[in-house]
Specification:
This protein is mainly β and 580 residues long. The protein has 4 domains: 8-137, Jelly Rolls (Sandwich); 144-272, Jelly Rolls, CATH 2.60.120; 277-454, 3-Layer(aba) Sandwich (Rossmann fold), CATH 3.40.50; 462-578, ntegrin, alpha v. Chain A, domain 4 (Immunoglobulin-like, Sandwich), CATH 2.60.40. Helices cover 13% and strands 43% of the residues. The chain is built from 8 helices and 38 strands. The radius of gyration is 30 Å and the shape is elongated. The relative contact order is 0.08.
């Protein structure tokens, strides 16, 4: 694809690439083509066709030569529009599709006029095509890689396969009500499902997003291609799910489309996909990616892009219109259940403005909610790095107010040893927003890039050991638990933090780190800072037991880096407590 000032152009010599499928066509040398094209043109024979898909463009043009052109154009399988011209025998630009939405559109051009080529003067008539144009920023999608419904990478919760001569694949997957189809796509710019229109209703979503897109098919009985998602998936791995809510879905094929230069779209086996570490996104519609939903989506989200940049898969359990105070602190299970390897938390804008459910907390209530959310994540996902993001700029919140509330988020991060980031430094509200609150593609890219620069790219293996003494101990007498953290990785670990939930029926006498500092409440949190390769740091806890029995202590360690070996991030030991 060639970019220039004005429209985006596909030259005739390039249009043999997978973006264009021709029937009844050939190529001819052209000494008379303009400099913006090449010395080759494509000629459509009588009843020959050119088929392609374009996205993010309101208009599509065809650069064509010759008088007496007679052709038709259909968009998305609709009624063909007939065009007949008797203009000059010179290069002209015909607007073949106008007023399109920014979604993907399938366009078929059918020639009805015999082309002519005069060796002395060049093409003199017919459909001699020099180039195809879309709006600046528009793209031509390469034709899809098609995967039959029986492909092993498509996982059904319930399915019956039926031979069908009308299906392109020869087999239909019959997916009943209540059943799901799950698959992972890589390098796809858009995804389509080839289905039989039979009045079935299904919901679809990507990357575990909590918001579903509902589709109800017509009842024509015809095979049709339906866009599953269409906002330009990132280069990386994307999980896609379909749930049938009414009727029986008859799936023929899954089609993966990609833009020029992205590489072939592929399905990835569930086993290979699930071996990739997972990033969980937790927040409101900004983290969810408000414009990523369904086939009418028009922009990808920063979390989707960030996962791609970091080489991770994404579980995006953010939900639009929510606040930390009345949602985030009560729904931590949605994050825990995804079993992530890292978590980005970004609440706040709806806490300031008031969320969709009538919740408008004070700043102190917001602070308590963020504390509660982080406490739960650290205790229920021991050893997992948690990152806190700021409230982004918006015309709806004065900058001084945003600064005050962001200070609350940063304070919570500091107290818990977490990475905090305000990724909005490079954002320009005039060009990087799709709505007053939500970034567009350029804004999402800038936010994701800021996060990618902040999150350490190394993987370091931290471990923690716990040793209690004396054993046995006595009620009312001090018991010491020595916590030893070791960096078994090859590089420096950043933001090393030890958390200890403290056992019941004890009094904490002291918590002393070999570096950094400790704070105590219902838990002990020790922020140790950096730890070099093969280095160790320690925390000494002195507890006074108040009852007899087994006194056990469990501690966990996490850093800003992802850890490739999680079991040794938690350590435990116990002593027996006897009567005084």
């Amino acid at each position: 694809m060639v970019s220039r000032d004005g429209p985006t152009t596909i030259r005739a010599s390039e249009s043999a690439q997978p973006a264009f499928v021709y029937t009844g066509a050939n190529t001819q040398n052209c000494q008379f083509c303009s400099a913006s094209a090449t010395k080759t043109l494509t000629q459509l024979m009588p009843l020959g066709t050119a088929t392609f898909q374009a996205r993010n463009s309101h208009d599509v043009w065809m650069s064509v030569l010759g008088r007496g052109r007679d052709y038709s154009v259909s968009v998305d399988g609709g009624t063909a529009k007939h065009y007949a011209t008797t203009t000059c025998g010179c290069w002209e630009v015909d607007p073949i599709a106008t007023g399109l939405s920014l979604a993907t559109h399938r366009i078929v051009v059918k020639n009805k006029t015999k082309p002519e080529l005069d060796p002395q003067t060049g093409p003199t008539g017919g459909m001699s095509i020099q180039a195809w144009w879309v709006d600046s920023g528009g793209v031509f999608l390469q034709n899809s890689n098609a995967y039959n419904s029986t492909h092993a990478s498509l996982v059904y919760s319930s399915v019956t396969f039926v031979a069908d001569a009308g299906a392109q694949s020869g087999t239909l997957a019959m997916v009943p009500t209540g059943s799901t189809i799950t698959f992972y796509a890589e390098n796809a710019s858009a995804v389509q499902l080839e289905l039989v229109e039979n009045a079935t209703t299904y919901s679809s979503w990507q990357n575990d997003k909590l918001t579903r897109y509902k589709t109800t098919l017509a009842s024509t009985g015809k095979y049709r291609q339906f866009r599953f998602i269409d906002w330009g998936l990132p280069r990386g791995l994307t999980k896609l799910t379909v749930r049938v809510t009414s009727g029986t879905l008859k799936l023929d094929r899954v089609l993966l489309l990609q833009t020029s230069g992205l590489g072939p779209g592929t399905l990835v086996s569930p086993g290979d996909a699930q071996s990739v570490p997972e990033l969980a996104g937790y927040g409101d519609s900004i983290t969810m990616g408000n414009y990523t939903l369904g086939p009418t989506g028009s922009a990808d989200g920063y979390a989707d892009r960030l996962a791609t940049l970091e080489g991770l898969r994404l579980a995006d359990v953010a939900l639009g219109g929510t606040s930390a105070t009345c949602y985030g602190q009560t729904r931590v299970s949605t994050v825990v259940n995804t079993k992530p390897d890292a978590v980005v938390v970004a609440f706040g804008v709806n806490d300031v403005l008031g969320d969709f459910y009538g919740c408008k907390p004070t700043m102190d209530q917001f602070h308590a909610a963020m504390e509660s959310t982080v406490d739960q994540l650290q205790s229920r996902l021991p050893g997992i790095p948690v990152y806190l993001g700021s409230i982004l700029p918006t015309v709806k919140i004065p900058e001084d107010v945003r600064t005050q509330w962001n200070q609350v988020i940063e304070d919570v991060a500091l107290e818990h040893g977490l990475l905090y980031l305000d990724p909005s430094v490079q954002l320009n509200m005039a060009v990087d927003y799709q709505s007053p609150l939500h970034p567009n593609n350029s804004g999402a890219a800038k936010i994701a890039s800021a996060w990618a620069r902040a999150i350490p790219s190394d993987r370091e293996d931290l471990s923690i050991g716990v040793a209690g003494s004396p054993d046995p101990a006595s009620v009312g007498s001090p018991v010491t638990f020595d916590l030893t953290v070791t960096n078994g990785g090859l590089g420096t670990s950043s933001g090393v933090t030890v958390t200890d939930a403290l056992p019941p029926n004890v009094t904490l006498q002291s918590a002393t780190p070999s570096q950094g500092s400790c704070t105590a409440g219902t838990r002990v949190i020790c922020v140790l800072g950096q730890l070099g390769a093969s280095e160790s740091a320690s925390v000494t806890l002195v507890l006074v037991p108040q009852s007899t029995g087994t006194l056990g202590d469990t501690a966990a360690v996490a850093a800003w880096e992802l850890d490739p070996s999680m079991p040794n991030n938690v350590g435990t030991d116990s002593v027996t407590v006897q009567p005084a």
